[in-house]
Design brief:
Shape: elongated
Helix content: under 10%
Strand order of the largest sheet: 1-2-3
Structural class: mainly beta
Largest sheet: 3 strands, antiparallel
Order of helices and strands: EEEEEEEEEEE
Number of strands: 11
Length: 111
């Protein structure tokens, strides 16, 4: 019986340990009888736990200071058609009166 290669590093040197298969090169362990997991992207949530998606409209929940500007983004500002991305600032959008910006999901509320 031949064991499968490691799904993470593709190493052929895998071995069985009870009901799991182990890769000695990257230390990945998996159950060969488990249902395959679907690769889902990260889930983005607003400050209140609502799930955000590309194209949503959000409201800023607190005044946000903007580097290089003397005026902050005011609480209650509505931002339309957001785009989600990975990184420190999760939202790529155009804020009315400021232009293109990146915001953090923890400072917005989905409408």
């Amino acid at each position: 019986m031949s064991l499968p290669n490691c799904p993470q590093c593709n190493s052929e040197y895998t071995y069985e340990d009870r009901h799991l298969i182990v890769c000695p090169e990257c230390a990945h362990e998996w159950d060969p009888n488990a249902a395959p997991e679907e690769e889902a992207g990260p889930v983005y949530k607003d400050a209140f736990g609502n799930i955000l998606q590309d194209g949503d409209t959000v409201t800023v929940i607190k005044d946000l200071k903007v580097k290089g500007s003397s005026t902050p983004i005011k609480q209650g500002t509505t931002v339309k058609d957001i785009r989600l991305k990975e990184g420190d600032h999760d939202i790529d959008c155009k804020v009315p009166g400021f232009g293109a910006m990146e915001l953090k999901t923890q400072f917005v509320k989905k409408i």
